[in-house]
Specification:
- This protein has 436 residues and is α/β, with parallel strands linked by helices.
- The protein is built from 13 helices and 16 strands.
- It has helices at residues 2-10, 12-24, 64-67, 76-88, 97-109, 122-137, 186-196, 219-231, 282-285, 310-349, 377-382, 385-399, 417-435, and strands at 43-47, 50-53, 58-61, 115-119, 141-145, 178-181, 200-205, 208-209, 215-216, 235-239, 262-266, 276-280, 353-358, 361-366, 401-402, 409-410.
- The strands form 4 sheets. Strands 4-12-11-10-7-5-6 form a 7-stranded mixed sheet, with helices on both faces.
- A hairpin with a 2-residue loop joins strand 1 and strand 2.
- Helix 4 runs antiparallel to helix 10, helix 7 runs parallel beside helix 8 and helix 10 packs across helix 13 (417-435).
- The longest helix has 40 residues, at 310-349.
- The protein starts with a helix and ends with a helix.
- The model has no long low-confidence stretch (mean pLDDT 97).
- Bound molecules: pyridoxal-5'-phosphate (PLP).
- Pyridoxal-5'-phosphate binds next to helix 6.
- Residues 66, 121-123, 126, 149-151, 206, 210-211, 239, 241-242, 266, 276 line the site of pyridoxal-5'-phosphate.
Length: 436
């Protein structure tokens, strides 16, 4: 209550604008997760690590454009390259050089990316990956993870939010072709897979469950699921839309000796512009080729009016060049910030939370009596999620620290060590409030 009052006092212009937004937009927003009580502030601008709202409040941002901005907002070099591109043009609808440059960089860093197709969102990338898998295997069913989030593609819109047995949306007609596995539970997962193996086209997994609670998969889990897939001619798809280029220059899978058939990328590789990427080996991606297969044999993948547009391609390519040049310096910094933050938070809350994550990603789970570990999205959902929202909102209202309430935080290169201290101080205040 107190925090809501503080927030309302600071965000009068946002409140007014949000009322207007509600008049034109469903629930006032364009993505359900962007709403939080009592109303989301309206952003005026962003700069480096800050979001600035229309009331001129400044927030240190941990949402960072859905975690796409690993270098922070308005990175200078990306801005100048985009300005340069704009001075030429911004939309061709034809093949452009920038896309070849970006693909060359991705392909070198992500060995599975022998062939690439671009779309404008991660949702499309996973949708196309599913379609390609069904074409190659001539099977229909896709296995995903309880709590796995791959965008709003109809093909994967099941078991996203707990309780997982409820449908995610009205208007879905083909949920029977999606089955779901308990993350990090190998025995149960393999049992489910065995029952469906003859109709399974693919298994799709995020190596770190993002929206589902910032929970890394164990290496053993991923390796064994992959082995099952390969033995049974099922495609093993890794969705690295969050994890690609987040912890190292390349994907997370390379560090686990995994050999996925297809990988989807997005977010970071678009340099802050709209992107989705389907990457795969030649032998599989050829099933999309119009020169090899007839219309009835091939899969339509990639594309859309704005796919591979010169601005996105320029931003993504510049992003990867900067990240590559910064190299270990960048990743060591971000990964160490994450480690320090997770340790600090767990210590401060003294056993009442578990802060999950890996590298620069972190999320604090408030434990309930029945939950003492966070291995999967069910554990995360059974935690005290209301308290997590209160905690994040406390930081927004009192200390100008922005986590999208309930969502994991991500460090960017624009953050500094002082930001860890700021989170620590705000957390202390939150704890004092609760002790009162
Ligand atoms: C793992 C994962 N896959 C796919 C998507 C969908 O990407 P987009 O929002 O660009 O459609 C997301 C978005 O957050 C994601 O986290």
């Amino acid at each position: 209550m107190e925090d809501t009052k503080t927030y309302r006092l600071k965000t009068g212009k946002s409140a007014k604008l949000f009322e207007k937004s509600k008049k034109y937009h469903v629930d006032g927003v364009h993505h359900n997760i962007r709403f939080f009580e009592p109303y989301p502030f309206v952003t005026k601008s962003a700069n480096r690590k800050f979001l600035i709202d229309v009331d001129s409040n400044k927030y240190v941002d941990y949402w960072m454009g859905h975690w796409s901005l690993i270098l922070g907002h308005t990175q200078k070099k990306i801005a100048s390259q985009i300005k340069k591109q704009l001075s030429y043009d911004w939309m061709h609808g034809t093949l452009n050089k920038n896309s070849i440059e970006l693909s060359e960089k991705i392909s070198k860093a992500v060995p599975v990316a022998e062939k690439i197709r671009y779309a404008s969102t991660g949702t499309e990338a996973t949708m196309y990956a599913v379609r390609l898998a069904r074409t190659i295997t001539k099977r229909k069913t896709i296995a995903k993870i309880d709590g796995g989030w791959h965008g709003y593609t109809t093909d994967l819109l099941k078991t996203v939010n707990w309780p997982f047995h409820k449908s995610e949306s009205s208007g879905l007609t083909d949920e029977k072709h999606i089955i779901s596995l308990p993350y990090n539970n190998l025995e149960k997962s393999v049992k489910i897979l065995k029952m469906k193996k003859n109709d399974l086209a693919a298994v799709i997994i995020e190596p770190v469950l993002g929206g589902g609670g910032c929970i890394p998969a164990t290496k053993e889990y991923l390796l064994c699921i992959q082995e099952f897939c390969h033995k049974n001619n099922i495609l093993f798809i890794l969705d690295e839309i969050v994890t690609g280029f987040r912890f190292r220059f390349g994907c997370l899978y390379n560090t686990m000796k995994l050999d996925p058939d297809l990988v989807t990328l997005g977010k970071i590789v678009g340099g802050g512009f709209p992107i989705g990427v389907i990457c795969g080996k030649n032998e599989l991606m050829k099933y999309a080729s119009t020169s090899i297969f007839s219309k009835t044999e091939r899969a339509y993948i990639g594309g859309g009016t704005f796919s591979a547009n010169p601005l996105t391609m320029m931003a993504g390519s510049t992003m990867l060049t900067i990240i590559k040049n910064k190299g270990d310096l960048l990743y060591n910094k971000l990964n160490s910030f994450g480690i320090e933050t997770r340790k600090m938070l767990d210590k401060k809350f003294g056993g009442s939370v578990i802060t999950t994550g890996i590298g620069s990603l972190f999320l604090t789970h408030f434990l309930n009596d029945s939950i003492y570990k966070i291995n999967n999205a069910t554990d995360a959902a059974k935690c005290n999620t209301k308290k997590l929202h209160d905690y994040h909102f406390h930081m927004i209202a009192n200390d100008g620290i922005f986590f999208l309430p309930g969502k994991l935080g991500a460090y960017s290169d624009a953050h500094t060590k002082s930001d860890i201290n700021a989170i620590a101080k705000s957390t202390d205040k939150f704890l004092t409030k609760f002790k009162k």
